[in-house]
Design brief:
Blueprint: H1 2-13, E1 26-35, E2 38-39, E3 48-55, E4 58-61, E5 63-70, E6 73-76, E7 80-86, E8 89-92, H2 102-105, E9 110-116, E10 119-122, E11 126-132, E12 135-138, E13 141-146, E14 149-152, E15 156-167, E16 171-192, E17 195-201, E18 215-217, E19 220-226, E20 229-238, E21 243-251, E22 264-271, E23 274-280, E24 285-296, E25 306-320, E26 328-340, E27 351-363, E28 374-384
Parallel strand pairs: 1-3, 3-5, 4-6, 5-7, 6-8, 7-9, 8-10, 9-11, 10-12, 11-13, 12-14, 13-15, 14-15, 15-16, 16-17, 16-18, 17-19, 18-20, 19-20, 20-21, 21-22
Antiparallel strand pairs: 1-2, 23-24, 24-25, 25-26, 26-27, 27-28
Length: about 400
């Protein structure tokens, strides 16, 4: 059997181990190898560029311009153009700086598809797709990465799908993760995972004005300057000029430019802008305690006659006017306020008009949940505050 195999290799390329001229890059249509250095690529496979390669174990060549199949792994010094299929892993750009052809080769990039059981690694850019059982890595991504962990050490454009997706700089496209999506730069597109992290979320309120919008959707969403959308249980942003929708919304700093509007925080608790704490009496209860948090929408806009707040309200009511002493009421709602603006000392935000919507639940004495005890209502009012913020 060994004799026939040697004859086969001899017919393809001459005597086994025959070498090209020194420092000369040779293109072969077809290369077969048992292992690096043992095949039709000779003892120095890094001097060969092939259109088709079949490696019984692992392969090593200068570049691929077509199809390469390896039972274990494949490694190229320069770029890969076409399809690489390996049982364990593929690498493009290995020993790149040591190659005598580096200066004329440009970048060690992938243009095509890499498929491997465990990992794919590209020194420079990925133009196409990387599919691996565990790990995909490249510099700048323009295409798709599909694996448990996907990394792009430059920018990304396209799609990353896995457990943990990471881009060093900006990302345009869709990141879908089972645990975490992260881009340290600008996000344009969509992040979907339990935890989403972005350096900046693009939106229509970006300064200068942006035309693209980004969305984070998950349990916890974290962003630097947030000009798009966040939807989740907990949303955290800095210089929030977009929209946050969640149970808890956090704006960690102001810093909105002059004549630019703040965003909108829609949630049960909005941390960063406190509006008011109060107590009222009504036809059902003697005491209705409420707290409102939200956003001063036009705080940085000059030349307007009113300050406009959008707030979320939490309420608790007790001591019923009629009925059992055990009767309680819980409520939540949203309100819009218009307060007077003035330069007169001590008179800022004294007068206001407001309107809103609320959802309430009446807890009866038997403490059993009853969906019929929910009711909704509209509010409208006007007033004068004796003490600011109360």
């Amino acid at each position: 059997m060994k004799r026939y195999l040697l004859i086969f290799l001899f017919l393809l390329s001459g005597p086994l181990g025959a070498q090209p001229e020194k420092q000369r890059l040779v293109t072969r249509t077809f290369i077969v190898s048992l292992a690096p250095g043992l095949g039709t690529g000779g003892l120095k496979p890094g001097l060969y560029r092939s259109n088709f390669a079949f490696n019984l174990t692992s392969g090593y060549s200068y570049a691929i311009r077509g199809l390469e199949f390896s039972l274990i792994s494949a490694a190229n010094v320069s770029d890969t153009r076409g399809i690489q299929l390996s049982g364990i892993g593929n690498s493009t750009g290995i020993n790149y700086e040591l190659s005598p052809f580096t200066e004329s080769a440009g970048e060690a990039s992938l243009t095509g598809i890499q498929v491997a059981g465990i990992f794919n690694n590209v020194r420079d850019n990925v133009f196409g797709a990387q599919v691996a059982g565990m790990y995909n890595r490249g510099k700048n991504l323009q295409g798709v990465q599909l694996g448990l962990m996907n990394r792009a050490s430059g920018f990304g454009f396209g799609n990353q799908t896995g457990v943990y997706n990471w881009v060093q700089h900006s990302f345009d496209g869709v990141q879908a993760g089972l645990l975490i999506n992260e881009t340290n730069g600008r996000l344009v597109g969509f992040q979907l995972a339990p935890v989403n992290i972005a350096g900046l979320i693009e939106g229509k309120n970006t300064d200068p004005e942006g035309k693209l919008t980004a969305v984070q959707f998950g349990l916890i969403n974290i962003s630097g300057d947030m000009h798009g959308f966040q939807a989740g249980l907990i949303n955290i942003g800095r210089k929030v000029r977009g929209t946050q929708i969640g149970i808890i919304n956090i704006a960690t700093s102001g810093g909105v430019p002059v004549n630019k509007r703040n965003g909108t925080m829609i949630g049960l608790l909005n941390i960063g802008v406190f509006h008011s704490l109060g107590i009222t009496a009504g036809e059902l209860f003697h005491y209705n305690i409420f707290m409102e948090t939200g956003t001063l929408k036009n705080g940085a806009v000059r030349g307007q006659s009113s300050n406009r707040y959008f707030t979320s309200r939490l309420e608790y009511s007790f001591s019923p006017v009629h009925g059992s002493d055990y009767l309680r009421q819980y409520g939540a709602g949203f309100h819009k306020y218009y307060y007077n603006r003035t330069t007169t000392p001590g008179m800022m935000e004294k007068r206001y008009v407001q309107g809103g919507f609320g959802l309430h639940y009446l807890q009866t004495s038997d403490e059993k949940f009853d969906a019929e005890n929910f009711y909704t209502g509209l509010r409208a009012g006007a007033g004068y505050r004796i003490i600011n913020k109360l």
